[in-house]
């Protein structure tokens, strides 16, 4: 191309009958002479350092052919800052990237149908997709004109699968502002630049290849492999910035999606994409942290890039490396409450382990247990139970009844039983795990504390609040001393104690603890994390109990909307939120009877479907509907429903459970009023219900649909590096909704493997 340009200039200047090898020299001599007059010479895209500055055996460097004259000037356009300094010293003008307004004007000038620009939103979106690049805008305009597409149609094409976008960006077009024989497609232009970068700096080319295998946005420099020196890293990244392939925001790097697609296409054309995926996986496995709570900030920075890698087919086939890294990724997703994403990865890990190691291998059982935990956290308790029973029974047979991993399975199953309202079964398993933990590990070991907290949770669900309080205070005191006041396990214990205080009517004490836990979780976990939402919902319940209904309504609505979005409309925690908000409305008298009944019926019907007709939370919904009917004067219907509810509560919860006693007392009161033929007044149990209904059964805002949700501040396990090395009992016995995984050296397998959360 440069040879042809010099030849064209020679012809324009009237220089004829010269050998091709002499063209550049003759042009230089002519322009350096007085007879040339005034002239301006422009070299566009002078990016190749080797071509301009390096001589070889066959030809001198291009720099040697630059004319020297006071009558003429030379302008270079380049993305290579180092070359700019070499060629022009300090006579450099930096040209900013094209802004939105300029890009809009370029698009408008090139489109045949100007009416397409009337949709300002889609126009702005398309320009952003094209990175405001004039060449990309010109290519898009040519395609739109030729195919008579709308801007939204072209924008949609750009968002299609990667190969579709590559084909679109590879479309050639005529650009009157460029040489006729030059290839105009954006992706072709970038591929040429990639080759130039590779010639200039292998380190820069390596970083380009690395970024092509991860997410293109907000890449921490700490994720990138180190070069020999910091200077090499800075030089390499600076070169990518100079070519406008990357941009920097603080210590993070970003690459536009189109450049990212072109980079991946380049790697595939060179048949090195799989090689780079393998290299990136090795680096990711090296720097990606475990899910210790102190690492939360780091793993959140790395997760988008680790997830992008985890879904590359070229990575999935590398089984050993894939299993190891994907385990850590899924752990952190679970710790962040991203249960569905964790489920997808755990499911894949389970299938790979089943095919690779067999159904009874420890790693396979661990994968199954982890998958069960994600089911449990999504409210899919029957699916969780099925897997957990299978894992527990297999471990009892293969490892023995008291093996740490078997005990982990027992604790997991107990947690699911609690969620299902099967509290007596849960208590039996919780007590079994706690006693072994105390004997083997000691009373203050973190896993022992977790098992105590689990038993306290079961007591709480059974209405044995004094017993629950004693255990919770014990756990908090030891946790503060051993783990620290702001450790997640300590916060969980504090939340549990607050729920117990609330059920005991000690609302000021509950509020103080709940505010402390909520604010800390907002800071550490984020405002939309499931644990944070639990804290907010619990505080709303306390506000309701205190008669602070406007404050309760604000929090209830916030939690309900976020849960609908994050968890789905039929998730047990979402149903709890709906019921809680309905209770607040009821207390405020804000909505008419029809609306009230519609929500009450909605909650009870979904509860029957999701949880079962005799689940404690379904029974709570039945009681609330009965109260609603009674308030409308439908005493006969209310009594029939409350009688059914009372019988089921006595059967499921036991006649001495607070909820069972409340239903029985309310029913007796209504019957007495009916017999006396007086207008029924509010029974003590009904007043109690409106005070505690937020949760709606025992006063805990988070218990309506899922028995654990309010008292769901369950103790989490300690991070792997701080767990006991005791070979007999290393399981993590917890009933926390998060998926917190640990590593353990399995006596059975002799290598590191997954250990699911309890």
TrEMBL record:
Annotated signal peptide: none
Task: Cite the Pfam families for this sequence.
Answer: TPR_10, TPR_12
| Gene3D superfamilies on file | P-loop containing nucleotide triphosphate hydrolases, Tetratricopeptide repeat domain
Q: What PANTHER family would the database entry show?
A: AAA+ ATPASE DOMAIN-CONTAINING PROTEIN-RELATED, ATP/GTP-BINDING PROTEIN-RELATED
Q: What name goes with this protein?
A: Kinesin light chain
Which species is this record about?
Petromyces alliaceus
């Amino acid at each position: 191309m440069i040879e042809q340009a010099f030849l064209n200039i020679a012809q324009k200047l009237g220089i004829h009958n010269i050998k091709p090898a002499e063209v550049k020299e003759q042009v230089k001599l002519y322009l350096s002479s007085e007879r040339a007059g005034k002239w301006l010479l422009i070299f566009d895209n002078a990016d190749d350092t080797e071509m301009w500055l390096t001589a070889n055996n066959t030809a001198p460097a291009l720099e040697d052919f630059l004319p020297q004259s006071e009558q003429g000037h030379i302008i270079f356009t380049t993305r290579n800052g180092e070359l700019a300094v070499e060629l022009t010293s300090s006579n450099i003008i930096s040209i900013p990237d094209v802004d939105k307004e300029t890009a809009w004007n370029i698009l408008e000038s090139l489109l045949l149908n100007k009416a397409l620009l009337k949709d300002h939103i889609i126009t702005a979106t398309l320009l952003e997709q094209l990175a405001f690049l004039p060449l990309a805008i010109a290519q898009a305009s040519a395609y739109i004109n030729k195919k008579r597409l709308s801007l939204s149609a072209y924008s949609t094409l750009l968002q299609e699968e990667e190969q579709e976008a590559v084909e679109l960006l590879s479309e050639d077009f005529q650009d009157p502002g460029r040489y006729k024989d030059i290839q105009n497609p954006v992706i072709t232009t970038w591929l040429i630049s990639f080759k130039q970068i590779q010639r200039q700096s292998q380190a820069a080319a390596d970083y380009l290849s690395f970024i092509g295998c991860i997410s293109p946005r907000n890449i921490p420099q700490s994720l990138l492999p180190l070069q020999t020196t910091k200077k090499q890293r800075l030089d390499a990244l600076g070169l990518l910035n100079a070519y406008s392939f990357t941009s920097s925001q603080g210590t993070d790097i970003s690459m536009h999606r189109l450049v990212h697609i072109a980079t991946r296409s380049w790697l595939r054309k060179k048949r090195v994409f799989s090689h780079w995926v393998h290299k990136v996986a090795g680096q990711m496995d090296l720097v990606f942290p475990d899910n210790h709570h102190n690492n939360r900030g780091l793993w959140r920075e790395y997760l988008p890039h680790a997830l992008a890698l985890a879904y590359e087919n070229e990575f999935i086939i590398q089984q050993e490396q894939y299993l190891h890294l994907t385990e850590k990724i899924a752990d952190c997703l679970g710790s962040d409450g991203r249960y569905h994403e964790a489920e997808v990865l755990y499911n894949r890990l389970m299938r790979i382990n089943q095919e690779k190691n067999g159904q009874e291998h420890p790693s396979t059982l661990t994968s199954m247990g982890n998958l069960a935990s994600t089911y449990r956290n999504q409210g899919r308790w029957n699916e969780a139970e099925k897997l957990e029973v299978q894992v527990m029974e297999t471990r009892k047979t293969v490892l023995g009844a008291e093996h740490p991993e078997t005990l982990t399975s027992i604790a997991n199953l107990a947690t699911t039983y609690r969620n299902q309202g099967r509290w007596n079964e849960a208590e039996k398993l919780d007590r079994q795990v706690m006693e072994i933990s105390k004997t083997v590990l000691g009373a203050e070991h973190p896993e022992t504390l977790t098992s105590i907290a689990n038993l306290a949770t079961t007591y709480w669900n059974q209405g044995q609040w004094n017993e629950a309080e004693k255990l919770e205070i014990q756990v908090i005191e030891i946790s503060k001393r051993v783990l620290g006041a702001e450790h997640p396990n300590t916060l969980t214990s504090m939340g549990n104690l607050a729920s117990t205080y609330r059920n005991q009517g000690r609302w000021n004490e509950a509020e103080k603890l709940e505010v402390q836990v909520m604010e800390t979780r907002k800071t550490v976990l984020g405002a939309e994390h499931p644990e944070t939402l639990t804290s907010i919902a619990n505080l709303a319940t306390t506000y309701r109990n205190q008669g602070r209904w406007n404050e309760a309504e604000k929090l209830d609505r916030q939690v309900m909307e976020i849960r609908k979005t994050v968890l789905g409309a039929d998730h047990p925690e979402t149903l709890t939120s709906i019921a809680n908000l309905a209770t607040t409305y009821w207390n405020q008298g804000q909505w008419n009877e029809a609306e009230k009944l519609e929500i009450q019926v909605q909650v009870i019907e979904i509860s029957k479907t999701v949880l079962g007709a005799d689940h404690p939370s379904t029974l709570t919904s039945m009681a609330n509907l009965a109260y609603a009917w009674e308030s409308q004067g439908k005493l006969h219907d209310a009594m029939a429903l409350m009688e059914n509810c009372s019988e089921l509560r006595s059967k499921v919860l036991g006649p001495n459970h607070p909820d069972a006693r409340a239903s029985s007392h309310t029913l007796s009161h209504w019957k007495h009023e009916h017999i006396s033929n007086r207008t029924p007044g509010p029974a003590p149990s009904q007043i109690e219900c409106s005070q505690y209904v937020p949760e709606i059964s025992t006063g805990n805002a988070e218990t309506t649909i899922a028995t654990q949700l309010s008292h769901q501040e369950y103790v989490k396990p300690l991070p792997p590096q701080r767990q006991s090395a005791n070979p007999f009992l290393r399981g993590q016995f917890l009933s926390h909704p998060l998926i917190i995984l640990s590593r353990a050296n399995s006596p059975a397998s002799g290598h590191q493997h997954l250990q699911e959360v309890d």
